[in-house]
Amino acid sequence: MRILFVADVIGSPGRRTLTQLVRLVRKDVNADLVVANGENSAGGFGITPEIVREFLDVGVDVITTGNHVWDKKEILPLLKTEPRLLRPHNYPPGNPGRGSVVVESNGVRVAVLNLQGRTFMSPIDDPFRAADALLAELKGQADVVVVEFHAEATSEKQAFARYLDGRVAAVVGTHTHVQTADERILPKGTARITDLGMTGGMDGIIGMKWELSVERQLTLTRGERLQPADGDLTLQGAVVDVDPATGLARSIERVNVPYERVLQGEFKKK
Description:
Layout: E1 2-6, E2 8-9, H1 11-28, E3 33-37, H2 49-57, E4 62-64, H3 76-81, E5 100-105, E6 108-116, H4 127-138, E7 144-150, H5 154-164, E8 170-174, E9 184-185, E10 191-193, E11 198-201, H6 210-219, E12 233-243, E13 248-258, H7 259-263
Parallel strand pairs: 1-3, 2-11, 3-4, 6-7, 7-8, 8-10
Antiparallel strand pairs: 1-12, 5-6, 9-10, 11-12, 12-13
């Protein structure tokens, strides 16, 4: 069982990259399942029902999100009705949506969990205890469990992966949009990477046009609204190979595919 995780898709440049590359990458890494983060796919902030359909149409099996999932109010009704669209599980009760789904691929039941950290972010429910409760609830319903942890602090992400080591197949981090080079299999068999990176314009600053980001640093005011960068388009993420018999990981490998290589007919996973 091989699962491709696609890093945060940033605005229309990121969507263009996803729609053009995801099928090619899926085939190249021989993935059985694709999980993509879409919380920044609508202009860099939020996601819409139309974009959800776009993701599903190009072969994404599960869409994860994070703190920006609430930015577009039109997504709220779909959070209630589309099980393949997740929001972090540990938001307080009463919010629409769900933080987990079980999907089947080649006879293997895979549970995808979406949780959010608290360090340097909005104070929400404890993700560690929320994960415990969710795993207990899902016991017997899945052969493989993978977790996307949407968090700011490297320390919190690594601690979360260690906490779940041996209980899930993978813990992959999102939110900071900078791919980390620390992918590894933890001692008890869980694959971990602190951050998958991003899918979109690499010539910007965390996916946004660098000029606007630098201006904010200089003026310390919001100024012009940030806009997605559209140069050096790249799909980032990771592929995890899982043993369905044990529910644990055999390997994890980063994915980093420039869109330009596809246009030039030179596609080959690096």
